[in-house]
Amino acid sequence: MRYSQYFLPTLKETPSDAEVASHQLMLRAGMIRKVAAGIYSYLPLGLRSLRKVERIVREEMDRSGAIEIHMPMVVPAELWQESGRWEHYGKELLRLNDRKDASFCLGPTHEEVVTDIARRELKSYKQLPVNLYQVQTKFRDEIRPRFGLMRGREFVMKDAYSFDLDEAGANLSYQKMYDAYRRIFTRCGLRFRAVEADTGSIGGTASHEFMVLASSGEDAIASCGSCEYAANVEKAQIRTLAVSALQPSAQLETLSTPGRKTVEDVAAFLKVDLQKLVKTLIVQTDTGEVVAVLVRGDRELNDIKLCRLLGANEVQMAPEELVQKLTGAPVGFAGPMGLKLRLLADQEIEAMSDFVVGANQKDMHHVGVNLGRDFTPELFADLRSAVAGDQCPRCEGALEIWRGIEVGHVFKLGTKYSEAMQATVLDAEGKDRVLYMGCYGIGVGRTLASAIEQNHDEQGIVFPMPIAPFQVLLVCLNPKDEKVCGASEKLYADLEAAGIEVLLDDRDERPGSKFKDADLCGIPLRVTVGGRGLERGIFELKWRATGEQQEVAVADAAGEIIARVRKAMEG
Ligand code: ATP
Ligand code: MG
Fold it and tell me: Looking at the structure, do residues 29 and 176 belong to the same domain, yes or no?
């Protein structure tokens, strides 16, 4: 490809609405352009890299025995009604009507469509196992699309669905995908970790997320410093501590805490440690239930754990008016005593004594509060989020917390969809058996963005060779000089003939500006052809990742470059 005839609009300035490095750099390197919130066009350079990631994904899916299909993006409502998700999926599901007023949605994921295929086409256990996958554009009307391709509304996903006769078979299919995912992300040049995850609204029995380590990641991951345990903080279990005998020693008192609404303010005002406070959070579920949840003053309520306990899809803090109505006080003074609500407590509370709670009265708190004597929660459960230093649920080690980007997700679905949609086959005895399913997603665009998030510097992108848009950038320093131009053209032709992907920078620009663009676009190997080098019979090679420079004799250059690129492709 010749730069002068290519479409590579680079930007000098960092666009102000791009917060994370990958988003900024993909805009600056002319890879993507925004069309609407969370909706992007891929320009040629971006598309080339996206295709590279797709190719790796396809190769590894094929190698694992999965079979490619392509399902529609527009999906009839009936299928989603059958699974029950038409009601439950919420606003991320973009619904639309056609001219006959029939309802459809834009597929955010394709369990329903693929289960429909399976129930029509799979008749016998002899056709199993089967794993169908596609690489396709998804739409989710995300509430906060951001970070460019990281959290788009329209995005490219690889989704695969396995069908097995029984759970043992499903476990094998799951393991194959897990292994394929490891190979895919390794080949993409990512530093990642597979962590235990919550199964969320897709439903199912077990799942792992593949997390790319990055400080800009939206997910928090807890991992043990001593053993292999790693889990999304959404799910990371907290060890039940042996409950020490409670020693209520204090009298119950009610103190004035004027204007002190936050736990920090109350603790400072009463001159007690935050750990001596218990927060009473009034929480509302998507199903309309309202409960009070108690967590220690310095802890965060974990929404996902609470959802699981309550069988809800979503929870949120009750609005101010409702808190006022239920507690008789403004927000900031809720407490468990006398509250006419289900009272759920984090397990940690069970070991507390002589603590502080809100008094359900403006500007008042109770101190010296004790369980049993003053109030009794309905239950104690693991309801808070893990923090660094918590004990590992598997061993004596301590948990560390780090941030990650979820690039892939594997789920054991069990029979959730096959049962709802009656997807069965006949077994060896001629009996109907409900299929066991698994589903497996990879965000293709997000994987690309994550690779850039992990591989960049001040000057720009540093592409890992296997997903770079071009393997070699050939900079012709002086296209008007016949010799320089001729030598560049010859090398260009030799490399192309060997199947090397070369971008020839034949623009009539100053060398400084060509090198700036070279660093910005991050093509792994830069080869410079200039007059002075030619006089000495050499080309200059420079690796983007290490800055390593080397001169090669003109006669050896093509062979040397081809060998080096091939080696780098293997990773
Ligand atoms: P998240 O928690 O980030 O919203 P999810 O759990 O909703 O992700 P899945 O339903 O498991 O995601 O989708 C499979 C994969 O698709 C994810 O692992 C991720 O890589 C990708 N993905 C999901 N949502 C988006 C999005 N809005 N933009 C880009 N990629 C996405
Ligand atoms: Mg999501």
Answer: yes
pLDDT recorded at residue 287: 86
Same domain? For 60 and 179 the reply is: yes
Any domain includes 77: no
What is the Cα–Cα distance from 210 to 24, expressed in whole angstroms?
A: 24
Q: Report the nearest atom of ligand 1 relative to the CA of 142.
A: 27
Q: Please report the pLDDT score of residue 571 as a whole number.
A: 67
As for how many domains the chain has, the answer is: 3
What is the domain range of residue 310? 253-381
d(CA 317, CA 326): 13
Distance CA 109, CA 446 (A): 16
Residue minimizing CA distance to atom 19 of ligand 1: 443
pLDDT under 50: residue ranges of the chain:
none
Give the distance (Å) from ligand 2 centre to CA of residue 343.
30
Q: What's the mean per-residue pLDDT of the chain?
A: 95
> Which CATH number do you get for residue 205?
3.30.930.10
Same domain, 64 and 173: yes
Tokens of 355: 């603590």
Find out whether the beta carbon of 235 lies less than 6 Å from any atom of ligand 1.
no
For residue 389, being part of any structural domain is answered with no
Amino acid at 270: L
Q: Do 154 and 181 reside in the same domain of the chain?
A: yes
**Would the CB of 524 count as within 6 Å of ligand 1?**
no
Whichever domain contains 263, its CATH number is 3.90.960.10
Q: Is 92 in the pocket of ligand 1 (CB under 6 A)?
A: no
Rounded Cα distance, 557 and 237, in Å? 57
How many angstroms does the Cα of residue 201 sit away from the middle of ligand 2? 9
Please check whether residue 6 lies inside any domain of the structure: no
- Closest residue by Cα to atom 16, ligand 1, is 443
**pLDDT computed for residue 202 by the predictor:** 54
pLDDT at 379: 96
Rounded Cα gap, residues 113 and 91, in angstroms = 20
- The β-bridge partners of 405 are 212
Counting ligands in written order, the one closest to the CA of 109 is: 1
Q: Is 107 in the pocket of ligand 1 (CB under 6 A)?
A: no
- State pLDDT tens for residues 225-263: 899 899 999 889 888 776 665 678 889 999 999 999 899
Please give the pLDDT value at position 200: 63
User: Residue 203 has what pLDDT?
Assistant: 57
Quick one: 190 and 227 in the same domain?
A: yes
- Domain with residue 533: its CATH number is 3.40.50.800
Q: By CB neighbour count within 10 A (0-12 exposed, 13-18 middle, 19+ buried), where does 168 fall?
A: exposed
- Specify the ligand 1 atom closest to the Cα of 441: 14
